Amino acid sequence: MLKSERAYLRPTKTDDIPYRYEWFNDMEFSRLYIGKSVYTSYEQVENEVRVAMQPTPYSGLMELAIQTIEDNCYIGNTFFRKINWQDRHAEFGIFIGPKDRWGNRLGSEVTKIMIDYGFQELGLHRIWLTAFTYNHRAIRCFEKCGFKKESVFREVIFSGGVFHDALGMSILEGETEIPYANSL
Ligand SMILES: CC(C)(COP(=O)(O)OP(=O)(O)OC[C@H]1O[C@@H](n2cnc3c(N)ncnc32)[C@H](O)[C@@H]1OP(=O)(O)O)[C@@H](O)C(=O)NCCC(=O)NCCS
Predict the structure, then answer these.
(1) 52 alpha carbon – ligand 1 mean position (Å)
(2) Which CATH code is given to the segment(s) 2-183?
(3) Distance between CA atoms of 96 and 86, rounded to whole angstroms?
(4) Most informative mutation of 6, 95, 115, 137 for ligand 1 (most atoms within 8 A of CB)
(5) Segments making up each domain of the chain, as ranges
(6) Distance from C-alpha of 166 to C-alpha of 127, rounded to nearest angstrom
(7) Pocket of ligand 1 (CB under 6 A)
(8) % residues pLDDT > 90 (the chain)
(9) How far is the CA of 108 from the centre of ligand 1 (A)?
(10) In this structure, what DSSP letter does residue 103 have?
(11) pTM for this structure?
(12) Of the residues 36, 58, 115, 148, which has the fewest C-beta atoms closer than 10 A?
């Protein structure tokens, strides 16, 4: 089982659906994560969870739920998607739903574990992500974990009457000096 100091990662399950539905319909969360303050239907969340629960070698998706060790709460998810086994790269993603858990260093703790897992167990060479440029907390979290800024997707989203940029970031195999898991 993947585990950091304060959280463990477990498979996604249907019990997670109501929590995800609530988080995705918090307008601050959805602006940060999806880029827009929009409604997400229960069916859509249900469908995403069911897809995540049945990964196939061809789906290119590996998603896990984040569960705290101290109080045993489900607080979010982390994943690799668009996994390309031939060129050994994948997109990384993470979200923590409850706002009172933000900025508590759990995101960087889990991201480091996933980077380790991606390079050492999945055999990836490159892990990449995008974040909206106004999502300063997420960008700082990813930088702390070794992701480097590499590109700007100009005016990629129209939200709140304004176009916003997204930042492309990546980390390559060998750019973490020691396995993060050993440094915890
Ligand atoms: C992004 C996310 C996973 C990060 O996890 P986290 O536990 O909140 O992040 P961490 O506490 O590990 O790191 C956040 C860092 O940003 C800093 N930070 C917080 N608010 C900030 C702000 N407004 N501007 C700049 N830095 C900020 C924190 O101080 C911390 O840095 P430090 O450890 O050097 O002090 C989590 O906040 C989240 O899920 N947010 C909502 C969904 C989301 O944005 N997902 C990512 C989409 S790309």
Answers:
(1) 24
(2) 3.40.630.30
(3) 31
(4) 137
(5) 2-183
(6) 17
(7) 29, 32-33, 76, 94-96, 102-108, 131, 135-138, 140-141, 144
(8) 90
(9) 8
(10) T
(11) 0.96
(12) 58
Ligand 1 atom closest to the Cα of residue 96 is 39
CA-nearest of 89, 34, 97 to 65 is 97
| pLDDT, tens only, 79-122 | 999 999 999 999 999 999 999 999 999 999 999 999 999 999 99
Residue ID of nearest Cα to ligand 1 atom 4 = 107
Ligand 1 geometric centre to CA of 136 (Å): 7
Which residues, including other chains, have CB under 8 Å from residue 161's CB and lie 6 or more apart? none
